Amino acid sequence: MIRRHPRSALRWLWPPLLLAGLLAFAACGGAPGGQAAAGGSGGGSEAVSEGGVLSGEATVDIVSGLRYSPADITVKVGTKVTWVNRDTSGMVHDVASGVLSGSDLKLDGRFHSPMLGQGQSWSYTFDEAGTYPYLCTVPGHAQAGMVGTVTVVP
Q1: 132 closest CA partner among 85, 68, 87
Q2: Can you list the alpha helix ranges (DSSP code H) found in 2-152?
Q3: Residue 74: phi, psi to the nearest 5?
Q4: Is the entire prediction scored with pTM above 0.85?
Q5: What residues are paired with 82 via a beta bridge?
Q6: Does residue 123 contact residue 45 with C-beta atoms inside 8 Å?
Q7: Are the C-beta atoms of 62 and 56 separated by less than 8 Å?
Q8: How far is the C-alpha of 25 from the C-alpha of 32, rounded, in Å?
Q9: Are residues 130 and 50 in contact, defined by beta-carbon separation less than 8 angstroms?
Q10: What is the spatial distance between Cα 59 and Cα 123, in angstroms, rounded to a whole number?
Q11: Residue 76 and residue 94: Cα distance in Å, rounded?
């Protein structure tokens, strides 16, 4: 008769518990500097493009395959960028300013959305010129390529 150690059952239990915790966190609301997550029905952005530079409002979709689309955008100062979770797998994602250094996340604290469920969105207005790398902080997502950059020009 094979006897299993009681702790071996825990390795199967932690993923659902982690997911439940992330979903509970997502229900808690907003983050400083941005707008709280909201249900969205989609819709386009009201961005105006001048030579590939967006102004007004821009949208980045969070899509299946652990990626942002488009991942890299260039906008004018004062543009509101909205990230919309359109991932049909049902995964939650977020958007945080920072970089992936090796396998470590280096967040700079400039912006960080709550966890976004499918159809939810979050916005941030870029008021200063600069380069703002961002990523998803869900374990393994940035390492799988879920990163992007917002370049803000005057």
Answers
A1: 68
A2: 10-26
A3: -120, 130
A4: no
A5: 59, 123
A6: no
A7: no
A8: 15
A9: no
A10: 9
A11: 23
Q: Lowest mean pLDDT: which of 2-11, 79-88, 106-115? A: 2-11
The mean pLDDT of 73-95, rounded to a whole number, is: 97
The whole-angstrom separation of Cα 75 and Cα 58 is 8
The domains of the chain, with CATH numbers, are 7-153 (2.60.40.420)
Tokens at 52, concatenated: 């590939």
For the chain, what is the total number of helices (H) and then of strands (E)?
A: 1, 12
CB atoms within 10 A of CB 72: 13
DSSP 18: H
Beta strand pairing status for 57-63 and 79-85? parallel
- For residues 31 and 112, the answer to whether their CB atoms sit within 8 Å is yes
Q: What is the pLDDT of residue 1?
A: 53
Q: How far, in Å, are 44, 66, 71, 92, 124 from residue 27 at the CA level?
A: 25, 21, 25, 11, 19
Q: Which residues pair with 135 in a beta bridge?
A: 96, 147
Pairwise CA distance, residues 98 & 113, whole Å? 12
Q: Is residue 125 very low, low, confident or very high in pLDDT (cuts 50, 70, 90)?
A: very high
> Would you say residue 29 has pLDDT above 50?
no
